């Protein structure tokens, strides 16, 4: 789905007209529409066309096959056909011909210096056998001829000698034929699903929906073919199926159902091709919800995931596999555009084990999904020039197919000591392309000509079933995060990324409040639809192929608006669902002149937090009391909000507070001066000239945790040159909040790349937290740029850890080799810890960061095989929050402007404690929810949850109304016990392990265990 989504193999000949326009990104080399002559000019100069692991001598495409006749080369220039050949060369292959009904090892005989036009005799001497065959005259000339060798298969290197007599001349050649295996090659037909990119989303969807109809027709037509050649279609993303079924007639729905049951249409579990490390745990789970419901409805098993284009995937996918039912994961990534060294995983399958060691998924990264485009799709006339392309019949299904690419590819696998006798290639004509209707006929003809490699049209499930059945005991087991590469692009729309992340947290809180209150009428469908919006914003297609080269193109504008709407709609829907969760029980108010508000703690642990009451809900005064009449510390803020300190808010609960005339309770005050702040726990000082934090002290800890360069530095990097980094200008610092509860300093500075920069530092009396609020008013700049906030901590012997979906990892130590180390994507926190002390850094808004001497992420272009990709992360106590960039050359946004705010939270601590750090991260992302009072004055979840090192990732009502669902995570490396107890001693609990369909898998006791680093989904209901 990127400028280099597709590649040409060495020697490929394009025969497209000058009038045929095509997105450069579809050819993988460029990213705008240009005339074909410009494409060819760039192709001749572009060195990135070489496909890793491919050693083809020149890709030419044979004409029709005839067992003992020559292979004719398509598209030859007749003006050059009269030159006679000067010599012959023998090229061993791994193939076996079907020669008179028996397998015969194949060697390709190549004519040098011209072609063979006259009749000829070929004499072969091989492995103790002699044989001969006649080459008939051919007016078009023969360039290559496939020789069937005599005798049985060899088990050692064996020399072949060939003598050819033609036109009164004798030509000889020798070669060494090595042993080879009998190959099965599985071909998986699909069309890569970009939600947009090649055209507006509605046009793209129409192509994919039409592909389903066409696939059913082709499968019916080929039902009588040999099993290997019978057509199967893989829909790739269930977004297509979801939309197809929503629009289909009853007749079409029935036909689709029958096609699925017959195996003509194959469904994989994921809703879309997604940046999985950018999705929250709840989103990652919901990615498979549609597939689970379809599987149940159709009475089938969906236990496969296919991801196209995106290099890398979150380890969290494996952690949740017991909940989603996923057992197999096929990745068919981009060929070489910003993929780092991930190509090293090509054709190296392994059982991918989760952090607990209890779950595993069989993972295979195939060759890039663009092979079908390279070999055939790129040669279909006017493939991308019409609005509504249909399947294209060339009438010559064997042309532009797998000969000779497949022979060279398999030979390379053998050279690399590939241990298996089977592999898989995907077959897509391009991104959002019509189906290849001729594939079954090409496969049928291939298998009639060759006994090996045998081609098998497959689904993902069939391939993995066959592979595991034959090789299960030989497949290695690996664990670690396959750190993604393409998350950098999400910072090209920093505002929308923050909106989406915040909406995800808000939706999670809405579900928790519904469970806390035990309300009836839980709108499960509305929640599902909102989760889908959130997932689709994280889907890997962000814009048009020309989003960078021509961002004002009407289609480019329309595609971004469509994409942006996912985040905006998710925000609106999550806000509405949060409102609906907090109202409905008819609270009538209290005494005259007194207002009441409810505060929800949507976390599974008790917390102390600053609560901000909107001005409209706090007109009665500035004094806040709890239900016992106790006065609480409070302060009217400069924003008009009334802030108060709520202590020991119970887990999963609602507490009521009242607002009165008067002032808040006294406590040890937080103080602020022109350049410093203190809340009795932290002491913070800023540089008067820069506004950077040069002192970060915590009571009870020795030393300054801020490096001398200062924390929260703003940096702007034009292009990719660290030497050109610019910094914010002279600081204008003033006091905003004066205490006694909340104090803050605001630092306003001019900033390169922005109209303005404001950084607020805030401390709250009695709270263990430093809050930073950075607001950029960005200027739209089309030239390449990166914006960072840099945090150089002073922590000796630092190890960097960060949160991922369903857990956390240590950078470098918990990463698979050949994965991204230039930048990282955090869910809720990053922690920098030495032996005795550390700092937890958290941002709900800005997910990307770099480790160590920055910048490591300022990379331009495709960077195939670039030395700038880092292979090892040196642990350093320096974190750079990469908030904005426009470094991509396609798909992502060219520029961004306007106001975007980034929140950061810092907490100094002792030795690293995963449970504490996770709790802090949850608190930063899921603050107390404040609403007008409604219903009973106090509400809480109907049971208690206890367990050391355990946190509740998510809580929401069961869709059927029977109890609640929760996902529990063990942060420690050893088994932990969880105990659930009813708050009503007369009401017992029904507890069962559950899954994505909310089924009761098996009953659990009140106390049960979770393995170290493991997760579990549980349903709890009243008996």
Automatic annotation (TrEMBL):
Keywords: Hydrolase. This is Glycosyl hydrolases family 38 N-terminal domain-containing protein. Residues 677-840 form the Glycosyl hydrolase family 38 C-terminal domain. InterPro entries: Gal_mutarotase_sf_dom, Glyco_hydro/deAcase_b/a-brl, Glyco_hydro_38_C, Glyco_hydro_38_N, Glyco_hydro_38_N_sf. Residues 184-473 form the Glycoside hydrolase family 38 N-terminal domain. It comes from the Bacteria. Pfam families: Glyco_hydro_38C, Glyco_hydro_38N. The keyword Hydrolase applies. GO terms for biological process: mannose metabolic process; oligosaccharide catabolic process. One of its GO terms (molecular function) is alpha-mannosidase activity.
């Amino acid at each position: 789905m990127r400028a280099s989504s597709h590649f040409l193999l060495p020697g490929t000949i394009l025969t497209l007209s000058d009038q045929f326009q095509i997105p450069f990104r579809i050819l993988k080399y460029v990213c705008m529409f240009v005339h074909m002559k410009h494409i060819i000019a760039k192709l001749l100069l572009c060195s990135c066309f070489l496909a890793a692991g491919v050693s083809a001598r020149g890709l030419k495409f044979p004409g029709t096959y005839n067992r003992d006749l020559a292979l004719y080369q398509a598209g030859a220039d007749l003006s050059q056909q009269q030159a006679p050949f000067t010599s012959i060369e023998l090229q061993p292959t791994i193939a076996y011909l079907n020669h008179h009904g028996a397998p015969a090892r194949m060697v390709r005989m190549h004519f040098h210096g011209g072609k063979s036009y006259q009749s000829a005799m070929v004499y072969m001497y091989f492995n103790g056998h002699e044989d001969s065959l006649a080459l008939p005259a051919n007016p078009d000339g023969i360039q290559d001829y496939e020789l069937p060798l005599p005798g049985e298969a060899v088990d050692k290197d064996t020399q072949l000698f060939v003598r050819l007599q033609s036109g009164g001349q004798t030509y000889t050649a020798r070669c060494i034929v090595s042993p080879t295996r009998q190959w099965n090659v599985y071909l998986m037909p699909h069309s890569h699903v970009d939600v947009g990119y090649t055209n507006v989303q509605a046009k793209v969807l129409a192509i994919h929906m039409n592909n389903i109809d066409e696939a059913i027709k082709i499968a019916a037509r080929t039902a009588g073919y040999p099993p290997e050649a019978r057509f199967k279609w893989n829909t790739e993303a269930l977004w297509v199926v979801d939309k197809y079924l929503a629009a289909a007639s009853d007749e079409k729905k029935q036909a689709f159902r029958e096609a699925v049951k017959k195996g003509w249409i194959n469904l994989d579990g994921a809703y879309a091709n997604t940046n999985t490390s950018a999705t929250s745990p709840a989103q990652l789970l919901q990615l498979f919800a549609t597939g689970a419901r379809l599987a149940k409805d159709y009475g089938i098993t969906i236990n496969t995931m296919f991801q196209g284009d995106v290099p890398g995937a979150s380890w969290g996918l494996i952690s949740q596999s017991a909940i989603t039912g996923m057992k197999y994961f096929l990745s068919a990534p981009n060929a070489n555009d910003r993929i780092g060294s991930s190509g090293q995983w090509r054709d190296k399958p392994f059982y991918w084990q989760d952090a607990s060691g209890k779950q595993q998924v069989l993972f295979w990264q195939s060759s890039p999904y663009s092979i079908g485009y390279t070999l055939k799709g790129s040669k279909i006339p006017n493939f991308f020039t019409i609005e509504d392309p249909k399947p294209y019949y060339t009438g010559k299904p064997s042309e532009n197919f797998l000969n000779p690419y497949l022979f060279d590819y398999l030979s390379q696998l053998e050279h690399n000591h590939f241990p298996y006798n089977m592999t898989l290639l995907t077959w897509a004509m391009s991104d959002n392309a019509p189906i290849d209707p001729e594939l079954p006929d090409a496969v049928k003809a291939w298998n009639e000509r060759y006994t090996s490699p045998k081609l098998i049209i497959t689904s993902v499930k069939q391939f993995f079933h066959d592979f595991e059945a034959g090789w299960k005991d030989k497949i290695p087991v690996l664990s670690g995060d396959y750190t993604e590469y393409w998350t950098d692009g999400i910072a090209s729309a920093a505002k929308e990324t923050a909106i989406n992340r915040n909406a995800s947290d808000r939706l999670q809180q809405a579900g928790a409040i519904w469970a806390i209150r035990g309300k009836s009428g839980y709108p499960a469908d509305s929640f599902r639809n909102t989760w889908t919006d959130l997932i689709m914003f994280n889907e890997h297609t962000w814009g048009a192929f020309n989003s960078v080269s021509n961002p004002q193109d009407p289609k480019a504008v329309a595609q971004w608006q469509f994409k942006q709407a996912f985040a905006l709609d998710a925000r609106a829907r999550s806000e509405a669902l949060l409102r609906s969760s907090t109202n409905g029980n008819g609270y009538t108010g209290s005494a005259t002149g007194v207002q009441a508000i409810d505060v929800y703690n949507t976390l599974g642990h008790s917390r102390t937090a600053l609560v901000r009451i909107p001005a409209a809900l706090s007109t009665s005064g500035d004094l806040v009391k709890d239900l016992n009449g106790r006065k609480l510390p409070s302060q009217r803020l400069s924003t008009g909000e009334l802030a108060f300190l709520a202590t020991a808010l119970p887990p999963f609960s609602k507490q009521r507070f009242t607002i009165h005339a008067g002032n808040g309770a006294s406590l040890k005050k937080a103080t602020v001066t022109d350049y410093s702040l203190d809340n009795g726990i932290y002491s913070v000082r800023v540089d008067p000239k820069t506004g950077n934090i040069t002192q970060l002290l915590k009571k009870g800890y020795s030393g300054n945790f801020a490096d001398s360069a200062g924390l929260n530095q703003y940096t702007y990097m034009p292009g990719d040159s660290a030497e050109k980094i610019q910094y914010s200008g002279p600081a204008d610092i003033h006091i905003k909040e004066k205490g006694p509860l909340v104090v803050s300093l605001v630092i306003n500075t001019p900033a390169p790349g922005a109209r303005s920069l404001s950084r607020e530092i805030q401390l709250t009396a009695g709270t263990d937290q430093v809050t930073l609020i950075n607001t950029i008013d960005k200027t739209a700049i089309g030239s390449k740029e990166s914006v960072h906030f840099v945090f150089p901590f002073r922590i000796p012997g630092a190890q960097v850890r960060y949160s991922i979906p369903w857990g956390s990892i240590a950078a470098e130590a918990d990463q698979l080799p050949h994965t991204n180390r230039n930048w990282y994507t955090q869910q809720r926190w990053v922690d920098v810890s030495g032996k005795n002390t550390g700092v937890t850094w958290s941002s709900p808004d800005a997910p990307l960061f770099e480790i160590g001497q920055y910048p490591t992420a300022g990379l331009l272009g495709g960077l195939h095989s670039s030395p700038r990709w880092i292979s090892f992360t040196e642990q350093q106590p320096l974190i750079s929050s990469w908030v904005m960039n426009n470094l991509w050359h396609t798909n992502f946004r060219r520029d961004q402007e306007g106001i975007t705010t980034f929140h950061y939270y810092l907490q100094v601590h002792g030795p690293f404690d995963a449970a504490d750090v996770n709790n802090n991260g949850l608190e930063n992302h899921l603050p107390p929810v404040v609403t007008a009072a409604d219903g009973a004055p106090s509400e809480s979840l109907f049971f208690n949850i206890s367990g050391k090192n355990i946190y509740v990732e998510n809580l929401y009502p069961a869709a059927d109304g029977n109890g609640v669902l929760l996902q529990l995570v063990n942060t420690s490396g050893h088994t932990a016990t969880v105990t659930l107890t009813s708050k009503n001693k007369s009401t017992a609990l029904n507890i069962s392990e559950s899954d994505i369909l909310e089924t009761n898998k098996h009953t659990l006791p009140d106390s049960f265990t979770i393995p170290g680093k493991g997760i579990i989904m549980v349903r709890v209901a009243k008996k």
